[in-house]
Amino acid sequence: MLKRLLYEALGMTMTSPCFSAHPMVLLFAALVAGVMQSAEPVKLPFKPSPVPGGIAIVPIHGTDTASKVTYHGEPVLTRRSGKGWVAVVGIPLSAKAGQDAIEVDGQSVPFTIKPKHYPEQRVHVADQRKVTPNAEDEARIAKEQVLMAPAWKAWPEALIPSLSLRQPTPGALTASFGMRRIFNGVPRSPHSGLDIRAPQGQAVRAPAAGRVVLTGDFFYSGNAVFVAHGEGVVSLLCHLSKISVKEGQVLQAGDVVGEVGKTGRATGPHLHWSLSLNNARVDPRLFLGGQP
User: Model pTM greater than 0.85?
Assistant: First the structure.
């Protein structure tokens, strides 16, 4: 039924080759999904994991309509649940265990962050500059961080994200997310993504529909692609040997975005996948409901 409505609305035939990639299709589908969402509760595809790097599901009581929800100043996506709503809150790795709160229409709503211990990871990197950058490298990194900041916060209009994602490339998942990393004996920030072991040149695909909001060759990430899936859900796919998409391009789940590589700070070919909610990096494994 939805497909027929799309065809009629856009004046396309069922054999139109550009149908699935047409931006208006994605917009129309998102709007229809939004109507359906307002009529029926949405079953979340994951269980709450209210730990640093996890997800808190916070009930929003006393409202029949979607509220404005923020967490530490960042907008938070919401979903219907029963007769009310819930906030799906990404918790940063830097968060401390204990009481925290979201803001719902200006009112504080508390929730509890549980403790979680992440193991330590020692890594040897041949290029010492990737561990202790020189002044020129530091200047480049600072510029790249400014460039990346809006990508992590991207919230494209009319995109309603799937919360059940596909593994972007086949391969073994490592236990790397959240690990406290020590490079060449020097402590560095925890690993804010998931590594997937894969051979050089293997296709990397979009884990869900979305829009490419940034591509580039970055000091640590190497060749990288940011895909905004909607409502503050953003994927970073990096260390690529090849980028196959352009900024502004609309993607469907499974579209090729590039190839596995070892660019940037990498000890060998693999895919690094970071997933962000409300500008907080969370463990992508919580969302892996699809197949690679």
Answer: no
| CB-count exposure of residue 6 (10 Å: 0-12, 13-18, 19+) | middle
What pLDDT is recorded for position 267? 83
- Where residue 191 falls among pLDDT bands split at 50, 70, 90? confident
**pLDDT per position as a tens digit, 118-159:** 877 777 767 677 777 899 999 999 999 999 999 999 999 889
Q: Report residue 219: phi and psi, to 5°.
A: -55, -55
Q: Identify the CATH number of the domain defined by range 120-287.
A: 2.70.70.10
Indicate the CATH number of 55-113 among 2.60.40.1590, 1.20.120.450, 2.60.40.10, 2.30.30.100: 2.60.40.1590
Alpha carbon distance 200, 215 (integer Å):
19
Among the listed residues 94, 261, 104, 76, the one whose alpha carbon sits nearest the alpha carbon of residue 190: 94
